[in-house]
Amino acid sequence: MSKVALFGAAGAIGQSLAAALRAQGRPYRVVGRSADSLRRAFGADPLAEIVAWDPQVPASVRAAAEGIDTLIYLVGVNYWQFELHPELMRKTLDGAIAAGVKRVVLIGTVYPYGRAQQNPVSEDHPRVPHTFKGRMRLAQEDLLMQAHAEGRIQATVLRLPDFYGPGVANSFLHRAALAAVNGGTADLIGPIDRPHEFVFVPDVGPVVMRLIDTPAAFGRIWHLAGAGVTSQRALVAEMERQSGRPMRLRIVGKPMLRLLGLFNPLLREMVEMHYLLTDPLILDDSALQRLLGPLPKTPYAEGIRQTLAAVDRSARLAPAAA
């Protein structure tokens, strides 16, 4: 069975992929900038090999890829440094090819599409990003798929919508989950009534494992959609129903994001992508279902239950840790 490496493993998707690999008893490598962070996240798993790298140093990239058959690319950058995405992809590809890696899977986003020209959006939708972040993600994808077209490596992209789930702190829904369990005000970026979709992070890993074991998956881009069309408002209402706790909502729109962005670089950069909250972009993953068969997806009510339970566990463990 081929060895898999998770490059940029420390985030929520990396945890989902590691759980799916553990479930199959597959050895895997986790690669990241901080060995200490990787040990905290994966050190208890005997199947996990921990490797620190510097993605800017070619020798470090190649060393991290040695002995790997399939590389799953999850490398993140600061939201205000998206110009690094193509550069890091180029360096990773060069190192991976030199090390003999056979396959690369990029976990991608909807940014390269720009505004949806129709919904739902299938993989043949024009990629015409009108934002800087979209153009950088498009350049990243093009580097990967060009390497596949040239026969240098087998490559594929799996696009995801926004995500949520246990321990996913960078979700639009995270602060609402905290408020549902602990009280206080739920901070949300609005509008919150527009159609939207979210993928439940624990659902991603099993799909990716099926994808990497399917030769026909390589050479094109795929979508994994959420569990249906919903809205932030609907999911907040579900949190209120399950917790029995009505929430106070503080909704920040685009003008306030601009103001807050004067003091917070993350919020400043979110202004550019705010269109995804006003102009729905819903993914069509029927092609992936034809390739892999049915894709089990956690219903939103169950996903919210697990998310709130994780927040509650963290709240109860915090005093003990202190």
TrEMBL record:
Ranges for domain NAD-dependent epimerase/dehydratase: 6-218
Pfam name, any one: Epimerase
Source species, domain of life: Bacteria
Cross-referenced Gene3D superfamilies: NAD(P)-binding Rossmann-like Domain
PANTHER family per UniProt: NAD(P)-BINDING DOMAIN-CONTAINING PROTEIN-RELATED, PROTEIN YEEZ
Name under which the protein is recorded: Epimerase
Source species: Cupriavidus malaysiensis
